[in-house]
Amino acid sequence: MRSTSRRAAALIAGAAITSTLLAQSVAAGPPRDEQSTARPAIAVGAPKVAGLPSTTRHAGHTCFGQTDNPHNSRHFPGDVSVSSRTVCPPHAVTVTVWLYKRVNGSWRLLDTGRNSGVGRTQANAHGRCGRRGTTHRFRGIGYHTATGHVPAWTRNARTVTCR
Questions:
Q1: Which CATH class is domain 2-161?
Q2: How many Cα atoms within 13 Å fall on the side-chain side of residue 22?
Q3: DSSP E strands: which ranges in the chain?
Q4: Per DSSP, what are the bridge partners of residue 96?
């Protein structure tokens, strides 16, 4: 009885710490870029693919977030699109993706996409590329969460010739 009570107290304390850490990271939100009016900053050190480390013991599955290259959209002529996904079966997952365009030396936010699901989810963002034949630098940034896992940032950048 006594060990069961201690075990339950430890589980509750661990859950409280985990939820506090996750709430703090989400409340802090994306970092801010001082040279831009856009909300999230360009996540400088974020990789293209990042693991979501577990905050508890979860054997048998790997969780990750990934942001793809920005590219000319096939669905929205004249636009650039970016996709970001979170994969973590069988947990609840979320992804937010921001698409930026380099304009006059600073990053301008074009669009934001969000989605949630169970096991896997994907979000897309798109915005105007520019005049046909012009070349611009774009960056996609993804923020990934999964229940029981530490959130992760990913990014991917590419120079695109507008079509």
A1: mainly beta
A2: 19
A3: 49-51, 64-67, 71-72, 79-103, 106-128, 135-146, 152-161
A4: 114, 143
Q: How far apart are CA 62 and CA 72, in angstroms?
A: 31
User: pTM of the prediction?
Assistant: 0.71
Task: Determine whether 117 is exposed, middle or buried from the number of CB atoms within 10 Å of its CB (0-12, 13-18, 19+).
Answer: middle
Cα dihedral: 28, 31, 33, 37 (round 10): -50
Q: Which residues are bridge partners to 64 per DSSP?
A: 51, 87
* Strand boundaries in 104-146, DSSP class E: 106-128, 135-146
Q: Where does the pLDDT of residue 16 fall: very low under 50, low under 70, confident under 90, or very high at 90 and above?
A: very low
The pLDDT tens digits of the residues spanning 58-84 come to: 556 789 999 999 999 999 999 999 999
